[in-house]
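Hi again,

Forgot to attach this to my earlier email, sorry! This is the prediction with flavin-adenine dinucleotide bound. I've pasted everything inline since the attachment limit keeps bouncing my files.
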Amino acid sequence: MDFLRPTTWAEALAAKADRPEAVPLQGGTDVMVEINFAVRRPPALLDLTRVAELRAWSVADGVCRIGAGVPYRVVVEELGALAPGLAQAARTVGSPQIRNRGTVGGNLGAASPAGDSHPPLLAAEAVVEAESRDGGVRLIPAAGFYRGVKRSALRPDELIRAVRVPVAAGPQYFSKVGTRNAMVIAVCSFAIALDPARQRIGTGIGSAAPTPRRAEAAEELLARELDWDAAAPDASLVKRFGRLCAEAAAPIDDVRGTAAYRLHAVEIMARRTLTWAWSDHIGRRAA
Ligand SMILES: Cc1cc2nc3c(=O)[nH]c(=O)nc-3n(C[C@H](O)[C@H](O)[C@H](O)COP(=O)(O)OP(=O)(O)OC[C@H]3O[C@@H](n4cnc5c(N)ncnc54)[C@H](O)[C@@H]3O)c2cc1C
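Structure tokens for the complex follow:
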């Protein structure tokens, strides 16, 4: 197995263009497990850990740009105010060791339906910044990034450079059901993002369909019927929102849970996160 070690982004893109079969390596918390368990034996690994710019994040024009190599630890410690949904999700990933190595870029690269970054990225309308030497930069909205179980819209010669997350315009929440509190892959998960100025509510469902996905009909229901001046959203509207979120899911029975349980849990998480976020929204308005 060849081990390619670029030190700049240009070198990384050149290496991927010359060897599209090379598997990118960021924190290695997915890749190394797969190699150790002989799930795959790639002809080459493309180690991105020496490309310093991938470990940086920045804010400009209301968008937080998070380099593909920024570990969850940094998301938790530094991005709680800018991207609260993503920071909450990052807090639930693995253990301190995994959060120290694992990255949002790697979560996107793996594109697992159970990845914890995906629901908050969907809810916040994040955009994946992909790049190749010959094709240049391609901006892929999160909603169009996930293409199947562990399949994404990335092309063989492309690498993820960063993910662009709009700075939170209102309260955001992430909720995850697992068999215990730490070191657990989601049975299912849900994220919500409120944008009071645009009167928009974004959603993201995890681990309850072949890909992470939004609950579009549920978002449209709130866009039509939610009274943004109300002290609390109408109880029957909250129920219908929960039901539409469950209807957007397409779960399976597997070792972590049954499809029926996942549908129920998505409905409950949708209702709860909406209620929590609304309470914050009202609190901020009163402050
Ligand atoms: C013990 C343990 C617990 C875990 N718990 C959780 C959990 O709770 N929630 C969760 O979501 N995940 C969990 N994971 C999975 C893993 O930690 C995450 O998916 C993490 O985000 C992967 O990031 P990484 O940087 O380690 O990726 P890597 O393993 O380096 O890469 C992952 C995938 O992304 C590709 N890739 C990496 N960087 C790029 C790039 N720049 N461009 C294109 N493709 C790229 C790789 O080729 C590979 O296919 C756990 C893993 C372990 C071992």
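The chain has a mean pLDDT of 97. The CA atoms of residues 256 and 268 lie 18 Å apart.

That should be everything now.

G.
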